[in-house]
């Protein structure tokens, strides 16, 4: 359920219909070796150093899930689109990963808790991002972290969530949040970009 690199896709998009071509975007499929390396390095710096349980919400076809699994983590991926979930299962076949069809805002994980919740280009599409963040915080184990990759896309009618708004929403959750600018690293996107793209890593005791 990630947003498109050039023009963010509307929250009501038909993700099942988009699934087959989803990985064509450089930062979705990570087929380019340089783009893949760039995301792997960032992910390694954001996720816990020790292998743990990672919940990838709005996982799409599982490209970030695969990087996390390659770094030793056990991954649970959730996406609203059954077609995306099937592609993710195929991509991570044989790895320590489970993929579920469900709502990223209220993932169907029961009482399971995680060392990290990873969410890329999803929060801005949700009707109540503050509520989603509070729920995701409850899914963390002690010393867990939220890894949120977001941005603002488009110049005529921008969509997305600015970094300052996201950090304000995180404020009541009483963690330590740091913002990492991603716009000026073309290796992540396969090209130069001019819009606002960033990651927030919020850690909790």
TrEMBL record:
InterPro entries: Methyltransf_11, SAM-dependent_MTases_sf. SUPFAM superfamilies: S-adenosyl-L-methionine-dependent methyltransferases. Gene3D superfamilies: Vaccinia Virus protein VP39. GO terms for molecular function: methyltransferase activity. It is an enzyme of class 2 (transferase). Pfam families: Methyltransf_11. Residues 55-148 form the Methyltransferase type domain. Keywords: Methyltransferase, S-adenosyl-L-methionine, Transferase. CDD domains: AdoMet_MTases. Its EC number is 2.1.1.-. GO terms for biological process: methylation. This is Class I SAM-dependent methyltransferase. It comes from Streptomyces violaceorubidus.
């Amino acid at each position: 359920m990630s947003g498109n690199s050039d023009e963010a896709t509307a929250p009501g998009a038909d993700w099942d219909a988009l699934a087959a071509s989803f990985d064509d975007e450089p930062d979705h499929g990570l087929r380019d070796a340089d783009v893949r390396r760039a995301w792997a390095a960032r992910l390694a710096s954001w996720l816990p150093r020790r292998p743990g349980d990672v919940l990838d919400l709005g996982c799409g076809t599982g490209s970030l899930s695969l990087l996390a699994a390659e770094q030793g983590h056990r991954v649970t991926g959730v996406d609203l689109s059954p077609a995306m979930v099937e592609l993710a299962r195929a991509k991570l076949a044989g790895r320590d990963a489970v993929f579920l069809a469900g709502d990223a805002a209220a993932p169907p994980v029961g009482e399971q808790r995680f060392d990290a919740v990873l969410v890329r280009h999803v929060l801005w599409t949700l009707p109540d991002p503050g509520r989603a963040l509070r729920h995701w915080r409850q899914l963390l184990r002690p010393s867990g972290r939220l890894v949120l990759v977001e941005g603002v896309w488009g110049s005529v009618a921008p969509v997305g969530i600015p970094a300052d708004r996201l950090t304000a929403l995180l404020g009541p959750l009483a963690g330590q949040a740091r913002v990492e600018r991603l716009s000026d690293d073309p290796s992540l996107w396969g090209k130069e970009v001019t819009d606002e793209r960033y990651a927030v890593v919020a850690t909790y005791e």
